[in-house]
Amino acid sequence: MQLIIFDLEWNIGYQARTFDYHGAEQTLRGEIIQIGAVKVDETGRVQDRFSINLRPRIFRKLQHRIAKVTGLTQRQLDEGVPIREGLGRFVRWCGPDAALAEWGMDDVPVLKQNLYLNGYDESWPGQWYDLQQVFLAQKPRGEGEGMTLESVVTRLGLPMDEPFHDALSDAAYTAAVCRCIDLAAGLAAYPAPEEQLRRAACPEPGEYAGFQLLSPTLSREAWREDPEMQALACPACGGPLVPDVQDLWIKRGNNGYYSLVRCPRHGAWLARFKLARPDGLHWNIARVYEKPTEAQLARWNKEKKLWQNRQKKRAEAAAAADAADAAAAQQGE
């Protein structure tokens, strides 16, 4: 395995753009305009470098906020290597057995979307790492400490001779941060995607049961629309679970949902779904059950009451609108 630490800069449009991915509509996160990367050994020592500016074909006008952050100009954008050719150079430089690593987890989804849109195999790379999480596992953040690359480089007292938000400079800075930790041990202990989703779905503390990772899907709503996913079974006895309120799922965070369900023999459970889209194309969905605490039951009852009140108001408003339409029609006669 060859470890590649990389960074991307990408352009966005003034209006959102979508594309078709095997029948599913996807929102384009951004079009790559700069790639910077370094090949490193297991200690983070740089062995080779790669840098290229790309000319986009979708978002051709440099967005003013991107220009401000990166320092790039429209002329530089226009003079860049055509994006398809540049992506091909990067893929060949990395090699087929490369594992990619970045600070955070924003660039891999953009890379995979751009690979697909330019005719390359978006399943590459098969392995990637969030080096921010590797760093945090060995050097937990203190109170008030930021986790941007620049703030960590500053906190570690590393030389800052190059500007940030330049792709090659940011990749090199990330490698320098990795030399301050045991990189090999951090990568060896890095959780697999299933374990990452399990940790997100089952935060401590909590009494969980029946964790299940469902097949990746292109639809974000598959967890709600697929009858198999909604066929909830008691993790203790396997019997069917009865919802407290049919089709009421309360949002938890950006990609989490839960509902109260009951087993005649084993009482109440919170059925939870957790969604993640680490590659920017496919949704990974986990389902798990949690024994609710008194505080969680109180929160559920509060949210349920608010939902029922909203439903009642909507019904009253609809009835009033129907009555008004009927009255207007009668007057017209």
Biggest beta-sheet profile:
6 strands, mixed
Total strands: the figure is 14
Low-confidence sequence ranges: none
Radius of gyration: 25 Å
| Helical proportion, percent range | 25-40%
Q: Note the run of SSEs as H and E.
A: EEEEEHHEHEHEHHHHHEHHEEEEEH
How many domains? The number is 2
Residue-averaged pLDDT: 94
β-strand amount: 25-35%
CATH fold group of the largest domain: Nucleotidyltransferase, domain 5
How many helices does DSSP assign?
12
- What is the CA-CA span between the terminal residues? 80 Å
Fourth CATH level, the homologous superfamily of the largest domain: Ribonuclease H-like superfamily/Ribonuclease H
What is the name of the CATH class of the largest domain? Alpha Beta
Strand order of the largest sheet: 6-5-4-1-7-8
Name the structural class: alpha+beta
Specify the CATH architecture of the largest domain: 2-Layer Sandwich
Shape: globular
Could you explain the architecture of this structure?
This protein is of the alpha+beta class and 333 residues long. It folds into two domains: 2-188, Nucleotidyltransferase, domain 5, CATH 3.30.420.10; 193-292, no CATH class. It has twelve helices and 14 strands. Strands 6-5-4-1-7-8 form a six-stranded mixed β-sheet. It is globular.
